[in-house]
């Protein structure tokens, strides 16, 4: 069985390794760097920045209270960039080693379909190589989307790709889009001393998450000097003596913002243009490859996974889809449950959610009960000086089944796995409350929030 995979990101390389484990002959085609956007221009470098920003804020704001006296604290931007590059290289090398270990044939070059059983690869040196396959998996990822308005091509209007490689911290920045990416960069650059303004067209920032857990992040942003303007549409960008001018409309009123840099952070779009999909008849919609639940396209021996199919554009989702695609090709039943996808924002406080938000559950007709426990009561959160946030369960009152778990606070992105497992096992809230949680931990807040569903939280005063 010959399987060819186009794209070496977290979808493609995971699919390649899983296929090799199932004894397929695998060829992985990657046009630039193994690890894709996630390792090179997304998940990993942004988290390196956020880790530094969090530690820097901690040293400045909390160490004196801890009993640690430090003077002359500075943020070394060049060293941060070097550390980012070092970590990326190490992880990319790790992926390369895993592929070799699994005897995956790797080709660096840009692949496109010649027919339903052949891919042509144009290598960086201009030479061409043909790859024959029985099955192919498209895993070409996504790229930053840009709104078609006047001024988007001006110098200083950048996407997340360029923002990660700035040689110095800008004095001011307008971020167009207050989603996950925009919020994470707002956290980084505001901590570094940049004056940040978020302009969001929707009524809320991070609109895909339960708004109860987004509120602590909004409060933290406002306290740290980040300006947030929601229900605001950007109509144009122009140059001025002060730098760049962002012209907006909010409920019929014009508002103007000026900044040194403008970050375009309105989301991402699938990368499918140069695959010659028309030669094999693979169907797309608005650039996204159409697939069924097995990740199969309308062409039976061609599959697609990850950001290039649209939908949930997350690295861990791409990896899971890669496994589904390979196991479907190899006639193995895949047991992945896509209801358990965690959504994470690595700001301070961290945000994490899995399952239905309260509003989603009500819209679907559930008789909803919720349980909330605030972080400021949690001892471990106090010790870590991270007492902003809360834990919130959404349950079906009739059955007690956990429908969703949503958190804001320390280690939320790690602890959310408890909620994902609860959803996968169709756990009830009683099963959460009857599970002993260690003390002192932030995880105790999950236990207390579960008790709070029926008004039995031990540490919430009546």
A few lines on this structure:
The protein is an alpha/beta fold and 462 residues long.
Describe the structure.
The chain has 462 residues and is of the alpha/beta class. The chain has three domains: 2-144 and 269-336, 3-Layer(bba) Sandwich (FAD/NAD(P)-binding domain); 157-266, FAD/NAD(P)-binding domain; 340-452, Enolase-like, domain 1 (2-Layer Sandwich). It has 15 helices and 24 strands. The strands form six sheets. It has a seven-stranded mixed sheet. Strands 8-15-9-10-11 form a five-stranded parallel sheet. The mean pLDDT is 95.
What keyword list fits this structure?
FAD/NAD(P)-binding domain; 26% strand; 15 helices; Enolase-like, domain 1; globular; alpha/beta; seven-stranded mixed β-sheet; five-stranded parallel β-sheet
Question: What's the SSE blueprint?
Answer:
Elements: E1 2-6, H1 12-21, E2 25-30, H2 36-41, H3 43-61, H4 63-66, H5 77-101, E3 105-115, E4 118-123, E5 128-132, E6 135-138, E7 142-144, E8 157-158, H6 160-163, E9 172-176, H7 180-191, E10 195-199, H8 211-223, E11 227-229, E12 233-240, E13 243-250, E14 253-259, E15 261-264, E16 268-270, H9 277-280, E17 284-285, E18 288-289, E19 302-304, H10 315-329, E20 342-345, E21 351-355, H11 358-363, E22 368-374, H12 379-383, E23 390-396, E24 402-408, H13 412-424, H14 429-433, H15 444-452
Parallel strand pairs: 1-2, 1-6, 2-3, 6-19, 8-15, 9-10, 9-15, 10-11
Antiparallel strand pairs: 3-4, 4-5, 7-16, 12-13, 13-14, 17-18, 20-21, 21-24, 22-23, 23-24
């Amino acid at each position: 069985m010959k399987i060819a995979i186009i794209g070496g990101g977290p979808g493609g390389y995971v699919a390649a390794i899983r296929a090799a484990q199932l004894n397929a002959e695998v060829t992985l085609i990657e046009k630039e760097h193994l690890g894709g956007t996630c390792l090179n221009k997304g998940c990993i470098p942004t988290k390196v920045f956020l880790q530094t920003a969090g530690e820097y804020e901690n040293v400045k704001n909390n160490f004196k209270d801890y009993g640690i006296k430090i003077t002359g604290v500075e943020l070394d931007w060049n060293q941060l960039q070097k550390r980012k590059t070092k970590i990326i290289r190490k992880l990319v090398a790790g992926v390369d080693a895993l592929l070799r270990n699994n005897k995956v044939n790797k080709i660096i070059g840009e692949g496109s379909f010649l027919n339903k059983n052949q891919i042509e690869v144009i290598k960086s040196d201009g030479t061409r190589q043909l790859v024959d396959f029985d099955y192919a998996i498209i895993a070409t990822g996504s790229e930053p989307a840009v709104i078609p308005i006047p001024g988007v091509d001006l110098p200083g209007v950048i996407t997340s790709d360029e923002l990660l490689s700035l040689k110095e911290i800008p004095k001011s920045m307008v971020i167009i889009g207050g989603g996950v990416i925009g919020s994470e960069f707002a956290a980084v650059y505001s901590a570094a001393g940049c004056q940040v303004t978020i302009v969001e067209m929707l009524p809320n920032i991070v609109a895909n998450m339960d708004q109860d857990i987004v509120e602590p992040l909004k409060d933290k942003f406002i306290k740290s000097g980040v300006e947030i303007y929601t229900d605001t549409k950007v109509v144009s960008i122009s140059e001025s003596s002060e730098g760049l001018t962002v012209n907006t409309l909010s409920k019929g009123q014009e508002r103007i913002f000026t900044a040194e840099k403008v970050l375009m952070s309105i989301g991402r779009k699938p990368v499918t243009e140069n695959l010659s999909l028309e030669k094999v008849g693979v169907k797309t919609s608005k650039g996204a490859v159409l697939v069924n639940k097995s990740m199969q396209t309308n062409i039976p021996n061609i599959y697609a996974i990850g950001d290039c199919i649209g939908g949930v554009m997350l690295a861990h989702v791409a990896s899971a889809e890669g496994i589904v695609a390979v196991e479907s090709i190899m006639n193995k039943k895949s047991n992945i449950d896509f209801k358990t996808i965690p959504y994470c924002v690595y700001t301070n406080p961290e945000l994490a959610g899995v399952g239905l938000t309260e509003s989603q559950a009500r819209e679907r007709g559930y008789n909803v009960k919720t349980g909330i426990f605030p972080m400021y009561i949690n001892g471990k959160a106090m010790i870590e000086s991270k007492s902003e946030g809360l834990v919130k369960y959404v349950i079906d009152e009739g059955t007690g089944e956990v429908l969703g778990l949503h958190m804001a606070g320390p280690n939320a992105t790690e602890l959310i796995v408890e909620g994902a497992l609860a959803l996968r096992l169709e756990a009830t809230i009683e099963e959460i409350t009857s599970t002993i949680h260690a003390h002192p931990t932030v995880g105790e807040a999950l236990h207390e929030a579960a008790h709070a569903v029926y008004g039995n939280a031990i540490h919430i005063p009546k």
